[in-house]
Amino acid sequence: MTLAVIEPATERVMAEVPRAGIEETDAAVAAAKAAFPAWRAVAPGDRSALLRHLAEALEAEAEDLARLEARNAGKPISDARGEIAMVVECFRYYAAAPERLLGQTIPVTGGVDMTFHEPLGVVGLITPWNFPLVIASWKVAPALAAGNTVVLKPAELTPLTSIELERIGLDAGLPEGVLNVVAGPGSVCGKRLVEHPDVAKIAFTGSTEVGRTIAAGAAQTIKRVTLELGGKSANVVFADADLAAAAAPSAVFGNAGQDCCARSRILVERAGMDEFMAEFERQVKSIRVGDPLAEETEMGPLISAAQRTAVASYAPDGAPVAFRGEAPEGPGFWLAPTVLAPVSNSDRAAAEEIFGPIACVIEFEGEEEAARLANDTIYGLSGSIWTRDGAKALRMARAVETGVISINSNSSVRVSTPFGGFKQSGVGRELGPGALEHYTDVKNVYYAT
Ligand code: NAP
Ligand code: MG
């Protein structure tokens, strides 16, 4: 059986790869299990060196990987280059971790007490199609650094760069069985990883809906789980802000809105609304939507026909469309960036994660209402606050129930800082110095003296 991989900008098959099922998933788990004892025993400095080699090998192929990702995920080549650069950075960052997995010594009576951060064993990593290789790297790098072996299941729609990662890992000297990739359906291969008794942990990025089934499935074998799920983040714009900067459309239309951190609820203070909307319209209408491989492209197509249909359902005939940008005609899953206003926070488009290029603009009056609206959602992943009043910015940053928030910026993710959600946006954190905790268990050793 093969998996036909579609290029979303052309709707053509760009590759056919073997389609994994239960048997291949079990074989990958068995290979990872067999490789674990030797991998955990590799001296910390040697494990560091191997991860640094892997970072270098990825860097050497960065342009090819970026082009492959741009074509398969339909994202602008400039974005894809940035993502592959982050993949390299992520492996470099965690390459330093094996020698820094420090335990504690704890004063006790009658002996010496010490803690160790032990690897978990085989970990199952399940990733989405929107940022395929970069999200894989956030999981693979700390998992391997901590001494685990891994089975990575990429999304069926975008398996190509993960398959390349497996090859590059072997070429860079990772022992056989340490990093295994199974490209197959989530309902088959993903589900099998969640149920498999030899998998100690699942790290998942994807929808809140699938996240719920993973948490329930993992409970059967008390697997550790990290869940990075959906979002409906607020972009809170006060009237005293730099409104031109606050209206940067990449906040919601980056990756064609298929971004868990998309600031898709834009809350604007009444006194700044007219100026904000004029600026936002000018900027949205100038977004260059087109061929992902063209250097000037700022937004590509959506990932699939099904995704486009689902997204378009949030702006049906009669929806309050304030303005739209442009989109190419012809083959490709194109959808023009669309701004809905005025919208109430309880409208379907404002309540549900759209995961496409449709933004809602919602008016507020004052700090208290802004915080109330920002928090009136099941999600809590990301967000931004725009104001020139520093104290107000910090009060708001503390008041908004979210795992990640930026002041006068739309950035959400950095290799060296923690990333993850509050509420139904997930559990656990990725990236930053704390990620290793999620790939280890603490062992306490008492030595009677
Ligand atoms: P998805 O449908 O939840 O799929 C995510 C992954 O889970 C895919 O690899 C999928 O495989 C697999 N899967 C599906 N059903 C499964 C099951 N029953 N058991 C185990 N695995 C299963 O999400 P998506 O549509 O790919 O991505 C969009 C979602 O991801 C959005 O909700 C977005 O917010 C979220 N996301 C979150 C973050 C974050 O860091 N918080 C980052 C990016 C995206 P197949 O695709 O092969 O079916
Ligand atoms: Mg899906």
Radius of gyration: 23 Å
User: How much strand content do the residues show?
Assistant: 15-25%
What is the number of strand segments? 18
Low-confidence stretches: none
User: How far apart are the termini?
Assistant: 61 Å
Overview of the structural elements:
The chain has 2 domains: 2-229 and 423-448, Aldehyde Dehydrogenase, Chain A, domain 1 (3-Layer(aba) Sandwich); 234-407, Aldehyde Dehydrogenase, Chain A, domain 2 (3-Layer(aba) Sandwich), CATH 3.40.309.10. The protein is α/β, with parallel strands linked by helices and 449 residues long. It has helices spanning 22-41, 44-60, 62-73, 77-95, 132-145, 160-171, 186-195, 208-219, 243-246, 250-253, 273-285, 305-312, 348-351, 366-375, 390-399, and strands at residues 2-7, 12-18, 105-106, 111-119, 122-126, 149-153, 179-181, 201-205, 224-228, 234-237, 265-269, 321-324, 338-340, 358-364, 383-386, 406-407, 426-427, 440-448. 51% of the residues are buried. The longest helix has 20 residues, at 22-41. It contains 15 helices and 18 strands. The protein has a 7-stranded mixed sheet, with helices on both faces. A 6-stranded mixed sheet has the order 7-6-5-8-9-17, sandwiched between helices. Helix 2 runs antiparallel to helix 4 (77-95). It binds NADP nicotinamide-adenine-dinucleotide phosphate (NAP) and magnesium ion.
Write the layout of secondary structure elements.
Blueprint: E1 2-7, E2 12-18, H1 22-41, H2 44-60, H3 62-73, H4 77-95, E3 105-106, E4 111-119, E5 122-126, H5 132-145, E6 149-153, H6 160-171, E7 179-181, H7 186-195, E8 201-205, H8 208-219, E9 224-228, E10 234-237, H9 243-246, H10 250-253, E11 265-269, H11 273-285, H12 305-312, E12 321-324, E13 338-340, H13 348-351, E14 358-364, H14 366-375, E15 383-386, H15 390-399, E16 406-407, E17 426-427, E18 440-448
Parallel strand pairs: 5-6, 5-8, 6-7, 8-9, 10-11, 10-15, 11-14, 13-14, 15-16
Antiparallel strand pairs: 1-2, 3-4, 4-18, 9-17, 12-13
